[in-house]
């Protein structure tokens, strides 16, 4: 099975058939897709300027989409390396029980669904790397009461999500499932209340 870097080489290779280059970009999302496969694909297509259903997009646009994905992947891999270094030190120092950020991180190892978007058509507009930087910053500071990606204040609790965890606070503005460790208990409670108000309306 081809890895991310070999697939990326195929996307860039002008000797490859255009259909293979597009297919290879889609396969890259099996290795790294911050919003989930479908939402990340929709995001990359809209940012690079080609339709998600276009079977023969401009090769330069395919490469632009790949470059955005690669930059985001670099940001995430650097975070994971630092995370692994920190956990190793904590274990060495006798801290064996992981915290809530660690529990969340275990579900997103490798970068799949880091900022899960359950609706593939609703996702942040900012570049992927910027979204991940904002999310990582939020994970490294005290919890807040709004979406760490877009600053949205309207969070609603959703059930039956197509990703673990299967329920959680979703930003109404940018569509991500906000990691619970970045929100205060009050913000989580408000998201649950918002859910109840929407259901009873």
User: Compute the gyration radius: what is it?
Assistant: 18 Å
Overall mean pLDDT: 90
Report the major sheet: 2 strands, antiparallel
- Residues in β-strands, percent: under 5%
Summed up, the helix count is 7
Distance between the termini: 49 Å
Q: Roughly what percent helix?
A: 40-55%
Task: Give the quaternary arrangement of the chains.
Answer: single chain
Uncertain segments? none
Q: What is the topology, as strand order, of the major beta sheet? A: 1-2
Spatial shape:
globular
Task: Determine the structural class based on helices, strands and strand pairing.
Answer: mainly alpha
Q: Could you tell me the number of beta strands?
A: 2
Q: Helix and strand string, N-terminal first?
A: HHHHHHEEH
Describe this structure in words.
This protein starts with a helix and ends with a helix. It has helices at residues 4-12, 18-28, 37-48, 59-92, 100-107, 128-139, 185-200; strands at 155-158, 168-171. The chain is globular. Helix 2 runs parallel beside helix 4 (59-92) and helix 4 (59-92) runs parallel beside helix 6. By secondary structure, it is mainly alpha-helical. It is built from seven helices and two strands.
């Amino acid at each position: 099975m081809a890895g991310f870097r070999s697939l990326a080489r195929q996307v860039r290779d002008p000797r490859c058939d255009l259909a293979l280059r597009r297919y290879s970009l889609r396969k890259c999302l099996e290795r790294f897709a911050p919003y989930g496969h479908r939402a990340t694909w929709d995001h990359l297509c809209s940012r690079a300027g080609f339709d998600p259903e276009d079977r023969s997009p401009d090769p330069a646009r395919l490469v632009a989409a790949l470059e955005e994905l690669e930059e985001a992947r670099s940001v995430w891999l650097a975070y994971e390396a630092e995370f692994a270094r920190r956990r190793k030190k904590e274990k060495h120092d006798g801290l064996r029980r992981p915290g809530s950020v660690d529990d969340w991180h275990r579900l997103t190892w490798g970068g799949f669904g880091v900022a899960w978007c359950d609706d593939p058509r609703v996702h942040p507009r900012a570049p992927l790397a910027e979204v991940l930087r904002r999310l990582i910053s939020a994970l490294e500071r005290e919890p807040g009461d709004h979406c760490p990606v877009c600053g949205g204040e309207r969070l609603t609790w959703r059930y039956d999500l197509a990703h673990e965890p299967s329920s959680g606070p979703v930003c109404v503005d940018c569509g991500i499932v906000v990691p619970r460790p970045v929100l205060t208990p009050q913000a989580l409670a408000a998201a649950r209340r918002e859910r109840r108000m929407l259901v009873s309306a």
